[in-house]
Amino acid sequence: MNNKQLKPTILGINHLISGIPRSGTTLLTSTLSSSSQVVVFSEPEWLKTLRTKAHDATSFTQQLTHQIAELRVSVEKKHAIQLKSSHFQKGQPANYYIRGEQGKIISDKSEYSTLLDPGLYKAPFIIKSNAQFTACLKQLIDTRAFKIHCIIRNPVAVVMSWRSLDIPVSHGNMKIAEKYSPEYLSFIKPAKTLLEKQVLMVDWYFSEFHKYQSEAHIIKYENMLNNMEQLLQEQFHIDDAKLPKTRNQNKSKHYDLSEANEIKACFLSLGVHYKYYYPTL
């Protein structure tokens, strides 16, 4: 990565985490949140408020920059801020969708008011949002105010994960990308089936990340799981996080593995940009 020089600041760096949905972005933010050295916002509810005010990627980027500045002031003045907290583990959730004993999926995305040490107003702030930050990637990079990390994963495993859940991408929906990325709708237009649409949605993420790979840090899910400690130290300068015990989930028991060959064939037929990172499936 040959990052553009960030603007100098007396405050901590603002890190943005993006990535393909179901590629480990929530796991990374959960791990980061276990550190006492950073403040982590994982898909914060206030992003929804910003989206009601911002009609395009440029205005969203301006709103985000202002929001982060306001949050730093709130922390310094000992005002409560909203952070996610898991119902199933200490700290922030590592997975938004937990499967119960009978296979029922339970959402783990609640936020609670939290008072932080006021000294953390100078700490690195880390904000995660997948579709939003990807759709606004160029504008975010152009500010030189953020260090951006984009997580990718084996594309066949991504689509199998999507199809094992009941979330917007499971139905081929990604309204945020439609609103903030002028190219997104034309990118997925060739799709004639749900699977084809999902394959092109994944390939759109790869396309955006490859386009800006010299300005963003690309992280492979598979490498992240094997080298989490090194990643945290090199990219976030963190040495006190609690490392997860999660193993590679590319062949989860919850996936319909009978679809794997059909998904692979669809990528070979329609996909282009995933090959920059996963030349073989």
Outline the structure in words.
The protein has 281 residues and is α/β, with parallel strands linked by helices. It has one domain: Rossmann fold. Helices cover 40% and strands 14% of the residues. The chain is built from 12 helices and 9 strands. The strands form 3 sheets. It has a 5-stranded parallel beta sheet, sandwiched between helices. Strands 3-6 form a two-stranded antiparallel sheet. Strands 4-5 form a two-stranded antiparallel ribbon. Helix 2 crosses helix 3, helix 6 crosses helix 12 and helix 9 packs across helix 12. It is globular.
Explain the layout of strands and helices.
Blueprint: E1 14-19, H1 25-33, E2 39-42, H2 46-53, H3 57-76, E3 81-84, E4 97-99, E5 105-107, E6 111-114, E7 125-128, H4 130-135, H5 137-142, E8 146-152, H6 155-163, H7 175-180, H8 184-188, H9 194-211, E9 217-220, H10 221-226, H11 228-236, H12 260-270
Parallel strand pairs: 1-7, 1-8, 2-7, 8-9
Antiparallel strand pairs: 3-6, 4-5
